[in-house]
Amino acid sequence: MGLTLWHPIAMPPRQVLAENLKLLMAQHADLGTLAKLTMRSGISNGTLDRIRRAEVATTVDVLERLGAVFGIEAWELLVPARKRTMLHSVMEAADRIAAYKVASDPANPQI
What we know:
The protein is mainly α. It contains 5 helices and no strands.
């Protein structure tokens, strides 16, 4: 049996973005409506509505603005919530390992 290098995407990026937008809006009461999100992000109500319904592709600029409003990185909007949680756990573990290595390095005395 050969190695499969390509796997179909479980959910199209446009749908991932829509689901994440809905989830983030539900988690942030101050951003729970399109009107509130429009006021904070400067993104038009119509554009946000089309993104939320997965009807339109968007730009990196819009992703960056949405990420800033919700306090996350733009790329996180394109990662399914389940995988995003897992990625954060891996990144935290990597940070702890890096901090441990620095702290235990004899060439790096601690004050």
